[in-house]
Fold Glycine/betaine ABC transporter.
Amino acid sequence: MLSACSVTPKKYDANKPVGPQVHETITGIDAGAGIMASTQKAIPAYGLKQQNWQLQTSSTAAMCSQLEKSIKYKQPIVVTAWQPHWMFKKYPIKFLKDPKGVYGKSEQINTVARKGFQKDNPGAYKFFQQFKWNSNMMGDVMYANFKGADPQKTAKKFIKDHPKEVAKWTEGVPDGHGKQVRMTYVTWDDAIASTNVTAQILRDKGYKVTISAMEAQPEWASIARGSADVTTAAWLPVTSGPLYQKFKNQVEVVGVNCPGAKVGLAVPKYMKNINSIEDLKK
Ligand code: PBE
């Protein structure tokens, strides 16, 4: 038993308003994420602003460890959440309904290239046009990386385990003969997964692929000005939407590489009476 003077974590109480129990705080991730911008719109859209709800900036890792701690003690917590991601595999959480569609009706992960990439490197471009996996495949890669595997090793294993898919994606793609492909990404788990897998497939085809990690804004800016060729991690239409709008005249959407993505807010399943973002307002 905990003694009276130690801090006893308070369990979630469904009979009390949720707001004060979480100090009107949504636990978010890094500031540059599209999900943060969407959440800043959701707060006023759902009338949470006048109840002083706020979004806490952190990181995916810090958010998940906070989530893990809360779940351990059945405490209340509201987090920013997205799929594909291993958090839904690891934690008993549920998305809150978003009847106003602030986070979009259906998100897809897209490949976005600089204008002129197709002309300069038609072989690599063809590969990116043909690269399309799904959230299961992606989830497995992400989970292996989360478990501590080196992302390049995970990519190599994925390639070995999925010869049919890889053959389809590389069909008609000529040997690279050392031609350069400059990929850019933010170190979010989905982007780490798709960047390493596509980079490795192209390397196996003889392309010289560099991958550079940066923040979301410079990522898009570098593609727009042509100092990078391509990213496989644009969540559209909503999550990466503001960046796409900003740079749409200088970039090109190559295509969807992972359909069925989802972005929003989530809570642990034991918060049984909280099922919609509207339920946060009480
Ligand atoms: N995410 C994961 C990112 C993109 C990938 C949904 C957290 C975001 O911009 O919000």
Residues 29, 33-35, 82, 188, 190, 235, 239-240, 263 surround 1,1-dimethyl-prolinium (CB under 6 Å). The chain has a mean pLDDT of 96.
